[in-house]
Design a protein that fits this description.
alpha+beta; Hsp33 domain; CBS domain Like; five-stranded antiparallel sheet; 12 helices; 13 strands; 26% strand; binds zinc ion
Length: 328
Amino acid sequence: MTALSQGGACGTHGVGTENDGSPYGEQPGEKIRTKMMKEEWKDELLTGMAAGNEVRFFAAYTRELVEEARQIHGTSPIATAALGRTLTAGAMMGAMCKNDSDVLTLQFAGDGPMKGLTVTANAAAEVKGLVREPGVILPANAVGHLNVGGAMGHGVLRVIKDIGLKDPYVGQTELVSGEIAEDLTYYFAASEQIPTSVGLGVLLNKENYVEHAGGFIIQLLPFAKEQTIRWLEEVLAGVHSVTEYFADGYSIEDLVHVLLGADAVIERRMEPKYKCDCSRSRVEKALISLGRKELESMILDGEPVKLHCDFCNKDYEFSVDELKALVK
Ligand code: ZN
């Protein structure tokens, strides 16, 4: 079990900014390939069980939502890859939440030039996120990929689960590589004691738009048999990049069956979305929470107040009269 939980081949799927050609031609997936054109692919998140209910999986195709995030934040290719991988993981981890009101936050903090990023998700697989230095640019890494790990540097991953209790649950682990997927694989093993394989990928085209994005989270249930664990490790050892499958015409559903077999059962289909939950009334509440004194000093300044949402880049402006109305 440890081999799976500690990453090994499984944790190395944070790649996918380049298509290295396809080693998958001989896979059984060839027969179940739907050969859809990517224009027809909608963002989709699948959850289900495999290997006689010994394995649970989450798989997501997230091109649209990652491209939306890229446009909102004007991210550089490295930042697009880092944010896109984390948004994809966030959508899947959001789907793990038990209650509709649960909120999950992934916080990466590193000493590299990107400094870190934050993604928040809910049980409906709605995500939002931001990168601390969205314009970060670095040379490609040793294998010719976007150097997400180098941009992140050393640091920590914090997973915050707000399930409506007085204090949220916070799990924290050291970053393994800063490549996101490996860091999450390690988080699940070390903090949640669940042997997990995380694969994430963002493929950009020549103009640096998002061509494909997606990923999977595969978890062994406590009673998984030794042979199931070995089988899964062998399968995952052959996976180098999630986006190579998409580039080869495999849909997210095809990917599930290629990885987990034709008898993997899809139990739920969701539509992951980039969605910010800010609103004028929330911003009003935040202003009121500053207190009467602070508001009165803003009114005395005689200038409208502008507030900015970093997650969706929306501006909220309050005139002096509107501020006065908040004090009443
Ligand atoms: Zn917003």
